[in-house]
Amino acid sequence: MTIGSNVHLLPQTNQLRAMHTIIRDKNATREDFVFYSRRIIRLLLEAAIDLLPFDKHEVTTPVGETYQGTKLAAELCAVPVIRAGESMEAEMWQLHPGLHVGKILIQRDKKTKLPRLYYSHLPDDIDQRHVLLLEPMLATGGSAMAAIRVLLDAGVPEDQIIFVNFLASPEGCEAVGDAYPGVRIVTSAIEERLNDNAFMVPGIGDFGDRYFGTRDSGATK
């Protein structure tokens, strides 16, 4: 399975792999899980922001010289997918004070097994903004594509959506890439595969439950 050019994988440094080793351990404490997840989330958000448009911008330094720098040229909005995506929101506020934030709630229907939109609230001018769509897990891609469709229906151009994601499966990357080739995906790890229950392997468990402490940290999803 080929991962498309729309997928931006963080450099797989020893430090990043060490953090993944800690949080993937089923015996990790919640404190360690949250601490090291937040460190990785910060790296993901920095990488995503770096994909946004920048303009040249000059400033005068304290010694009276000119520095040829850059300045973010995009109006930005973050849209976490409730609930796990909200784990990324606090880090985003730290990087971009005054950020505009929308919310989307999508859950899998128990009968149809398909993603269902329950709630969305987006800024009125979101169609004029670049959007960071925040959702830690990309497994089959169904929920991600449903969330992307909400943004497209609100007028956001496909090439102005960056999907910021903690773990991705090859199948999920391929599904999103085929459906929405203009959407860029930023992730910290691409898993080996999905198993027969559509769980990522080797996996991390249920990210939201482990982050927010609502279930045994060894829970798998």
TrEMBL record:
Domain Phosphoribosyltransferase, residue spans: 11-214
Keyword Glycosyltransferase: yes
Gene Ontology molecular function terms on file: glycosyltransferase activity
Record key words, sorted: Glycosyltransferase, Transferase
Domain of life, per lineage: Bacteria
Pfam families for the chain: UPRTase
NCBIfam families noted in UniProt: PRK00129.1
Protein name: Uracil phosphoribosyltransferase
UniProt organism field: Salinactinospora qingdaonensis
